[in-house]
UniProtKB/TrEMBL annotation:
Keywords: DNA-binding, Transcription, Transcription regulation. This is LacI family DNA-binding transcriptional regulator. The keyword Transcription applies. Residues 4-58 form the HTH lacI-type domain. It holds the Pfam family LacI.
Length: 337
């Protein structure tokens, strides 16, 4: 037996096909009696509308495209979770695809998502090509870009204030009694690298404590480990008691170096990080760090995008979220009792 059609619904309800369409799409007013008849007929026939055809007509798919560099990156997975859970609350599905940093893949994925009638796009990247931004803007659909490393111009995004947050962590370390700090800085050609370094420098200048700087070539655990000998040279030269890494991965790598070389954290040297990656809480000693609210970044991005689609609230260029220090076991205190 063939599946019932909209014509069957109209015939059973004793109304026109256009009336059935109005009830289903809530596009125009329909009398209460006609509405009741249509809904009753839909229930009796167990009518299932063709959602693809409906979305093409209505230009409304209740679907958001999510383009991510790599779902295997832990913080990106947390962002996606926030996007998906808020989407479900508003009856929106997500269409997810990873690019692995391939620009040709990014072009193809954007085109594919547009053919699927996505109503908006959230792009989670670590560096985006200007061509891709131009392509996104040319599609004339709302989009949010989440990229914590590079500059924003007129794009919509959700982030934290890296400068003030790094300043806050530095002040926390000084308040714990640390008078000489080694700071592991990430790429200062990136927005995040410049802001974190500026926050650190501002705090040590204000508190008049000693500091030393070392630049990391990237932000992997292996890099943090490989820099261990050089970091300890700075520690000895400056009588430093704490190492503040601009990313958790660098901090974890350095802690591993300490373990392999018979040095105890925090007894011999304290270590602090930035990000609150999953590994920060399960590594030993658990890492004192700054929480980046990745789940909230995804959740708020999705909520703002949906509000834009519903004409409830316009997307703002940048939404800044609060962050906090997570105190764990990797930082010793020298405060006077």
């Amino acid at each position: 037996m063939s599946a019932p059609t909209i014509k069957d619904v109209a015939k059973l309800a004793g109304v026109s096909i256009s009336t059935v369409s109005r009830v289903m799409n809530e596009s125009k007013p329909v009398s209460p009696e006609s509405r009741r008849k249509v809904l009753d007929a839909i229930k009796k026939l167990d009518f299932k509308p063709n959602e693809l055809a409906r979305s093409l007509v209505m230009r409304k798919s209740n679907m958001i495209g999510v383009i991510v560099k790599d779902i295997g990156i832990s913080y990106m997975a947390q962002i996606i979770r926030g996007i998906e859970e808020i989407g479900r609350m508003y009856n929106y599905d997500i269409l997810l695809s990873s690019t692995y940093g391939d620009i040709e893949a990014e072009h193809k994925i954007i085109e594919f998502m547009c053919t699927k009638q996505v109503e908006g796009i959230i792009m989670i990247s670590e560096k985006i090509n200007p061509e891709i931004l131009f392509k996104l803007k040319s599609k004339k659909i709302p989009f949010v870009r989440l990229d914590k490393f590079y500059e924003y111009t007129d794009e919509h995004t959700v982030s934290i204030d890296y400068k003030s947050t790094c300043n806050k962590m530095t002040n926390y370390l000084v308040d714990e009694g640390h008078k000489s700090i080694v700071f592991i800085s990430e790429d200062v050609t990136s927005r995040i690298g410049r802001e974190k370094l500026a926050g650190f420098n501002e705090a040590v200048a204000e508190r008049k404590v000693k500091s030393a700087l070392i630049n990391a070539k990237d932000i992997t655990v292996q890099t943090g480990y490989d820099m261990g000998e050089e970091i300890f040279k700075l520690i000895k030269e400056n009588n430093s008691t704490v190492v503040f890494a601009s990313e958790d991965t660098l901090a974890i790598g350095f802690i591993s170096y300490c373990y392999d070389n018979g040095l105890k954290v925090p007894q011999d040297i304290s270590v602090a990080g930035f990000g609150d990656d999953l590994i920060a809480s399960i590594y030993r000693p658990a890492l004192t760090t700054i929480e980046e609210p990745y789940y909230d970044m995804g959740a708020i991005s999705m909520r703002k995008l949906i509000k834009e689609l519903r004409n409830e609230e316009k997307l703002k260029d940048v939404t800044i979220l609060p962050s906090r220090i997570i105190e764990r076991g990797s930082v010793a205190t020298f405060k006077k009792k």
